[in-house]
Structures are given as C-alpha cells and as structure tokens.
Write a structure and sequence with these properties.
CATH architecture of the largest domain: Alpha-Beta Barrel
Helix content: 40-55%
CATH topology of the largest domain: TIM Barrel
Oligomer: single chain
Number of helices: 14
Structural class: alpha/beta
Order of helices and strands: HEHEHEHEHEHEEHEHEHHEEHHHH
Number of domains: 2
Length: 313
C-alpha cells in the first residue's frame, strides 16, 4: 500500500494511531508499529522523564518507526522537545498551537513533523511553516476539537484542494469503510484514535475501555467551548457542566468546576462519574476490546475489500 505517507514514515500501511492522553503509551504505540501502522506515544499526559521512559521502552519493543504526539500548550514543552531529540525520535506530531514555534527546530534535527489542524486556514498556516504533512481532524473526534465545528468528510476535500503536502484524515474513522471514504475524498492516510483506545494495549483504565464499547449514538457531545471545546461521554460530570450552563456561568466558574486532572481521573483511573471521558462519535460502532494488531488487520482487510468493490462498480 505504498503512497506518500507510507514512504514519508517508512511504514507498511497508511494508518496512524492517535497520540491520545492517558491512552497512548509505549505498549499501544509499539503494537501498532509492529503491525505495520505508525504508533504514537501521547506526550500530553506525561511528565518529561515519564515520556523518556516510554520512548526507551518503545524502542525496545519495536524496530519499526514510531512517533510522539506533543500538544504545544504543554508547560514543559522545551524539556519534552529536548528528550525527543536526545532519544532519537524521528517523527513528531504537534497540536494545539502555532506550528511555526517548533517545526524548524525539529526539522533541523532530521525529524519529520506533522501538525494537527481543524480548518483550511490552519492547514495553510501549517504548510507555510514547513511541516511534512497535516492531520485534518473533524468535529466527530473525541477529546479537544476545533472551534469551527467542521466535520471530517467536509474538511478533507476542502483542505486537499488548497495544500500540496500529504493530508491525514482524523475524526469519526474506525473501520476500513471509513478509511476508504476518507481516501476517496483525498486523504493520503487516516489517523484513528477511539478504535485504538479500546484495545488490550491501550493504557486507559479497563472501565473506560468498556464505556467505549457501551457508548451508543448520541452518548457524546462537545462542551466547554469557552475554555477548549472537548467531546465527552454524557456522564455525571458532563451533566454537572450542563447544569452550570443554565446559570450563565463565567469562565472562572467553568474552570472551577473543571478543576484539575479530570481526564486522568476518568480515562486512566476509571472514575466514570466524576472524570472526563473523552471519546469520539465513532465509539457507537466499537463493540469489542481487541489486540491492536487485530484491529489494524481488520481495518486493512475491510479497506482492501472495499477497494475491490469500488473497482468493480
């Protein structure tokens, strides 16, 4: 399945595992990379030395390419970037910030840089900053979203029309059929989060993995747009947020309710009532917790079947 993305990263399949906080540790990243995709370690929920430990373990667990996802709002980002360089990581996905800030630094070190965007405007800015590829993430995605509320299958063709660098589709994709649809619309690869969150190698709490399997259509919604839009499962915490909205709260009141470490509490520690449970709309089509390799194989086999079907139309 050679194309621009497989050649850029030297991987077998154009499938990237999302670098999700509290979910994407070295076990998941190495499992996806060993299966032929590109695994990403999610640095957003790791102290610098914890990230170093995950990188070292990932290097021992796979001889295939893997990368690190870095939200640029991270408070110790300089230390994170230094560790990435020191440990010889060759692929970095950046998000939640200006791609100009770190792209040149990373590329000078021989690192491939990909930036996550949610609009044509930011896709063009990322391309101008010199990134090697972009992830176009639609509003269906779990976790933090763009404010534009553009869906994946609207965003991909609009971005593809404007940029020359490879485009990776993300948000609402968790199957071979979804992968085929994204690539028909112009994507060169797909980035998949929720489907890999519900795998045996995911570092998420088992209770959170089960919630992903149990979620149905309409069970997630984007909220807290005044702070940073985030798609959450409608649990007790979510309903507390909605009740507060009835009082026309200030940003300070929303921040006070949110507090600290809500995502860790829900996704990593398994507090399904009081934690943030960040997952995408595609969870309604996830019915089983499987090994990451099996998930990837299922996606590729279904994709190839769909490719044959479309060819024979």
């Amino acid at each position: 399945m050679a194309n621009k993305i497989t050649q850029l990263f030297n991987i077998q399949y154009p499938v990237i595992q999302g670098g999700m906080i509290w979910v994407s540790g070295w076990r998941l990243a190495s499992a996806v990379s060993n299966a032929g995709g590109l695994g990403l370690i999610g640095a957003g929920s790791m102290y610098p030395e914890v990230l170093r430990e995950h990188i070292l373990k990932c290097k021992k667990a796979t001889d295939k390419p893997f990368g690190v996802n870095v939200p640029m709002l991270y408070p110790d980002i300089e230390k994170i970037m230094d560790i990435i360089v020191e440990e010889g990581v060759k692929i970095v996905f950046t998000s939640a910030g200006n791609p100009k800030t770190w792209t040149a630094f990373l590329k000078e070190k021989g690192i491939k840089v990909v930036h996550v965007v949610s609009s044509v405007k930011f896709a063009l800015k990322a391309e101008a900053a010199g990134v090697d590829a972009i992830v176009c993430e639609g509003f269906e995605a779990g976790g933090h979203n763009g404010r534009e509320e553009t869906t994946t299958f609207t965003l991909i063709p609009m971005v593809k029309e404007q940029v020359k660098i490879p485009v990776i589709a993300a948000g609402g994709i968790g199957s071979g059929k979804g992968m085929m649809a994204a690539m028909v619309l112009g994507a060169d690869a797909v980035q998949i989060g929720s489907r890999f969150a519900a795998t045996e190698e995911s570092s998420a709490h088992q209770k959170f993995k089960q919630i992903i399997v149990d979620v149905k259509d309409g069970d997630t919604q984007v909220t807290l747009k005044e702070l940073a839009p985030v798609r959450l499962v409608k649990n007790k915490f979510y309903h507390e947020v909605q009740e507060l909205y009835q009082q026309n709260p200030s940003i300070e009141q929303l921040k006070e309710l949110l507090g600290r470490a809500r995502a860790k509490k829900g996704m990593f520690e398994g507090d399904l009532e009081n934690g943030e449970l960040e997952i995408g709309q595609i969870a309604g089509l996830i019915h089983q917790i499987k090994p990451a390799k099996e998930v990837l194989i299922d996606i590729i086999e279904e994709f190839m079947l769909m490719k044959t079907f479309v060819k024979n139309l």
